[in-house]
Design goal:
alpha/beta, Metallo-beta-lactamase, Chain A, 12 helices, globular
Length: 367
């Protein structure tokens, strides 16, 4: 009897090989899925543990959660500056998108102790509802978010609280009052009188941290203030929106880090010319108007030099700088006015000023 053996063809070998490879690929994908899911879980756990702020050295630390302006800018959210003093976290202004840059840096919105508003232009306040909600729900807070600001802040807070009233109720009904504590919802206004002349008003003073406000010139917008933070021998000044001001120079005297707004007339002039070329008259007028209530990069550098500050950081950048080469134009003439370190900020920039020294280190937490 003849034993008939089947011939194994090249096609059959190919199919078997393909099936084996597919099985291996499936196993690899499943392993990769497991690894990615596990990594995601670890990232969530690390974020919720708030270890980043806990591990910082004692001192002042500045996080740029929004370096931009009302103008669209892919690299910069609306103006928002986080200041850490010891274990306390404050936000100066809350522009659109700034709150969403906290989490990626490992800074939980629930840790925010208070917001300080420089003035009430929309690009400085339009993130208030989001930070209040995130702080309340994410931080399991039982008291509302304090919002400091000059006269008018009470109306701002009242309006946001009214707008978010239904949202608050939805979340309480969905999650339960043990999870989202009703008494912690919303904001509470902490108004202060705008300082006269070149004087200042003490906003916070707990024996270690002192925050003072001073009036700046952002006419016709009034009131408008800047803030200075002093903590254990380290100091940071945030200008707010202003023209070149001797008041800023006076209060910035000897600070470690000066954060100053800046507008480039040369680049804004390009915008004006473009609007004229396009026949869009209202945008031509707006781009001309904004020149008279901001500070140029060179003017801010002159303030930094006169006040003998250790380092100058530009924020509230006008206009957007989508191409790296534009930064060179933005900074034209600055090195002739100020010899110290200069930085054009982007979202995620982080400056650390440990207590008891003069070191300033820089990193970007979301690059």
């Amino acid at each position: 009897m003849i034993n008939k053996q089947k011939k194994v063809t090249a096609a059959q070998i190919g199919r078997a090989t393909a099936l084996a490879l597919a099985a291996l690929l499936l196993c690899a994908c499943q392993a990769a899925d497991t690894a990615v899911i596990r990594a995601m879980q670890r990232q969530v756990a690390e974020s919720l543990s708030n270890t980043f702020l806990n591990e910082l050295p004692d001192g002042l630390h500045v996080y740029i959660c929004g370096a931009g302006s009302p103008m669209p800018d892919a690299q910069r959210a609306g103006p928002c500056v986080g200041v850490v003093a010891g274990q306390r976290l404050y936000l100066v202004d809350v522009g659109s998108g700034g709150v969403r840059n906290l989490g990626p840096a490992g800074i939980m919105a629930g840790r925010v102790d208070a917001v300080l508003l420089s003035h009430f232009h929309s690009d400085h306040i339009n993130g208030l509802g989001e930070i209040a909600m995130q702080r309340w729900a994410g931080g399991h807070r039982d008291a509302p978010l304090p919002v400091f600001g000059p006269e008018g802040v009470t109306e701002i807070v009242k309006g946001f609280n009214a707008a978010y009233a239904q949202d608050v109720q939805y979340r309480i009904e969905h999650h339960g009052s043990d999870t989202v504590i009703p008494s912690g919802a919303g904001m509470v206004a902490r108004p202060f009188a705008s300082p006269e002349g070149d004087g200042s008003a003490t906003v916070i003073d707990d024996g270690e941290l002192k925050v003072t406000a001073f009036t700046v010139n952002h006419s016709p917008i009034s009131p408008a203030v800047g803030y200075r933070f002093d903590y254990k021998g380290r100091s940071v000044l945030i200008s707010g929106d202003t023209t070149k001001s001797p008041v800023v120079e006076r209060h910035a005297r000897g600070v470690d880090l000066l954060l100053h707004e800046a507008l480039s007339p040369e680049l804004v002039g390009v915008m004006t010319a473009g609007a004229r070329e396009a026949g869009v008259a209202h945008m031509e007028k707006i781009s001309q108007d904004i020149l008279d209530y901001h500070t140029t990069p060179v003017e801010a550098a002159q303030i930094a030099a006169a006040a003998e500050v250790q380092q100058l950081v530009y924020y509230h950048i006008v206009p957007a700088l989508p191409v790296g080469y534009l930064k060179r134009i933005f900074l034209r003439g600055v090195d002739e006015a100020y010899a110290g370190p200069v930085h054009v900020s982007e979202d995620g920039d982080f400056f650390s000023l440990p207590a008891g020294g003069d070191e300033i280190s820089h990193d970007n937490l979301i690059d």
